[in-house]
Amino acid sequence: MRILIVGAGAIGGYFGGRLLEAGRDVTFLVRPTRAEELDRDGLIVRSPLGNIVYPSPPLVMTPMLDQTFDLILLSCKAYDLDAAMESFAAAVGAETLILPLLNGMAHLDRLAERFAPGNVLGGQCLISLDRDASGAILHLNDTNQLSFGELSGAVSQRILKVADALADAGFDANLSQQIVQEMWEKWCFIATGAGVTGALRASIGDVMASGGEAWVLQLLAECASIAENAGYPLRRDVRQRFQTMLTTRGSKMTASMLRDIERGAPIEVEHVIGDLVARRSSADKHAKGGLSTLDTVYLHLKSYEARRLRERG
CA of 242: how far to CAs of 27, 183, 187, 238, in Å? Predict the structure, then answer.
């Protein structure tokens, strides 16, 4: 199976690097500046599960795309989705499968509109990654799970081929028959974790030390209510696990959104938080005449965005 990894940033570089090491047919679609870095330094991943140093990984740039691929792994930031779709459009054929690893759900409709519904799979990953100033990818925990599946939940021949291509490649590749449920659950977790640590500019442990447990649980409850109204209630064991992770005393956990804020970068506030606000029913507005916890988080993060744009004026 010919696999195109769109970008060689943290997520694409990590999973693409693992696939390369496993001998899979992988090509990275990159911009010129990243191509120069990779040609000069190679693909570098520093991970507690094993480092990767892959000299001169296979690269292509958009003007050079002249054939279609079997599988496209997409892990761009949500605000770059339109540009990313344009960049890899020439690689999409009638049988091409697009596996997006973005948070939230809105990207599924946008991909289906730009290409075809049949091209789009469901997907998510559970991993904490960043990049340092040199461009090396840093794996920050010991989890590296990638889940994928047909949006319908079917176990088709094509999804089995994807499972074969991703198996035994140095990460946990899970074929899921309920990928949409899992994407909604992850969305609730990410929105709560990013909302708490991003809006309060603090780790989970610092928020707990400040007496913020009830506020965190309220935000999770509001996100879970929106998921339930959409037909995807959080499963009891999943919700309990989220509550434990999000209220652990002394936890150093922060979301990548906070790291983006601290470096003055753009954030995925609309895709992760704003889309939940837009999907909320009137019954979910817990504070009539005032702001709900979700509204407050959205206001904080939008204010950061507004200040960032003004300062770059």
Answer: 35, 14, 11, 6
DSSP 56: S
Q: Give yes or no for a contact between 47 and 139, defined as CB atoms under 8 angstroms apart.
A: yes
CA atoms within 13 A on the CB side of 204: 22
Give, in words, the CATH class of 2-177: alpha beta
Q: What CATH number is given for 181-311 in this structure?
A: 1.10.1040.10
| Domain boundaries defined on the chain | 2-177, 181-311
DSSP state of 173: E
The three-point CA angle 156-75-185 to 5° equals 70
The Cα 195–Cα 85 span in angstroms is 27
Is the separation of the CB atoms in 201 and 267 below 8 Å?
no
pLDDT of 18-63, one tens digit each? 999 999 999 999 999 999 999 999 999 999 999 999 999 999 999 9
Which string of DSSP letters, residue by residue, matches 261-313? HHTT----HIIIIIHHHHH--GGG--STTS--HHHHHHHHHHHHHHHHHHHT-
Quick check: pTM over 0.70?
A: yes
